[in-house]
Structures are given as C-alpha cells and as structure tokens.
TrEMBL record:
Record-given protein name: Carboxyltransferase domain-containing protein
Matching Gene3D superfamilies: 3.30.1360.40, Cyclophilin-like
Organism in which the protein naturally occurs: Agromyces luteolus
Positions of region (Disordered): 73-98
GO molecular function: ATP binding; hydrolase activity; transferase activity
UniProt keyword terms in alphabetical order: ATP-binding, Hydrolase, Nucleotide-binding, Transferase
InterPro entries the record matches: CT_C_D (IPR003833), Cyclophilin-like_dom_sf (IPR029000), PxpB (IPR010016)
Coiled coil stretches, renumbered: none
SMART domains listed in its UniProt record: AHS1
One Pfam short name: CT_C_D
Lineage: Bacteria, Bacillati, Actinomycetota, Actinomycetes, Micrococcales
Keyword Cytoplasm: no
Bias (Basic and acidic residues) ranges: 82-91
PANTHER family named in the record: 5-OXOPROLINASE SUBUNIT B
All copies of domain Carboxyltransferase, residue ranges: 6-211
Amino acid sequence: MTGREPRLLPSGRSAILVECVGLDEVLALHDALAADPPEGVVELVPAARTLLVAVDPDVLALESAAGWVRRAARDGPPADGRATRDGRADPTGEASTDDVVIEVDYRGEDLAGLADHLGVSPEHLVARHVAARWRVAFIGFAPGFGYLVADDWPFDVPRLDVARTRVPPGAVGVAGAFSGAYPRESPGGWRLIGSTGVALWDPLADPPALLVPGRGVRFREARA
C-alpha cells in the first residue's frame, strides 16, 4: 500500500494493534484484510490511525496473524475494491444493494450558514451530500456513531467554535471530511444539516449498530 513495513504492537494475547500513517492507509489495510480473512480472525476494528486485529489465539497464533497483516499491507486490497456490509471487498467498486440507505430531512439549523461559508447554495450542498457514496470508516464517540467518508465529497467543514451541549438523536452532521448521524442525544460540535428517524443504535437488536466499519451508506432526501 505505502511500501513501508507497518508497525505492529501486541495487544494482550488475542489482538494486534497496527499503527498506520493515516485514515487512507487504515481503510486500504482494512479492505485488504477483510477480503480474505483466515480462520481465527474475530474482528477488525479500524480507527483514525490504527487498526485492531482481534483473533482467537487457539485457532490463529498472533505470529501467524502478524505475518498475514504484513502480507496484506504489502500487497494491498483487491483492485478497485470497496467494502460491503460485512466489511469484505466488493471488486466492482460500485454501490451495493447492501448499502444502508438513510432518509434525511435536510432542514438542519446549520445548513444555510454552512452553505454560505462554503460558497454554495443550500440546495447544492444537499445534492452533493446525497450524491456521495459514503462508507463507514470507523465507529467512535458514542455507540453506533459511524464516521463516514466519501471520495466524492469535496468539502472540508469546520467544526463549531463552541460545541452544542445537546444534539438531538437522529441529527445528521458534517465536520472535516466526515459525515455522520447522532444515534442518541449528546453534546456535539458538528454542523447539523438535517435529521433522520432511522434507528442507528438498538441494544436489543442483533447487531445493535446499524452502521459497521466498511459498510456503504447512501443518504436520500426525505420527501415531504
């Protein structure tokens, strides 16, 4: 992927933490590993600059897992691969029927101000948000909160100077190169462009989180 040997750190007896240069390398390594995991791999947990590889050490020794990670880092993901719902690569690179579709009411309180800041109309901003094919890069901040990225999202959005003390559940926001939806009420500093009624986190469901790393996401404007 980058030509460099990744730094692998043991994390207990059943996991390896892989340190990456940045999110692009994390996503590429995640796709490469998810494309063909050996028996004994339990979970791949990406973050902004790291990837945790959890294994069953009784099935796959950490030394063997480390060798698999290094080979994947060297060889890279399948050509034009994209991740699907289960985190495996989709060799077509096209939108999948497994993409999560999230309907959004684009009347967020920051929409007009953000559009003005970016030098576009609110309608253009919404159209770009809907047109982008997003993927879940990693989960963080709160259970079920997916940090979404898209190659065709052109904006770098500044966070609020002062975070809100209360963001309602279902609020859809953007910050930096990311988009996301708040699964529950919480503080937050993202610019809110809309809201959704989709259940993003249900502790009684299996799995409880609608969004998982590697899954494709599409936003669709809700009709009045």
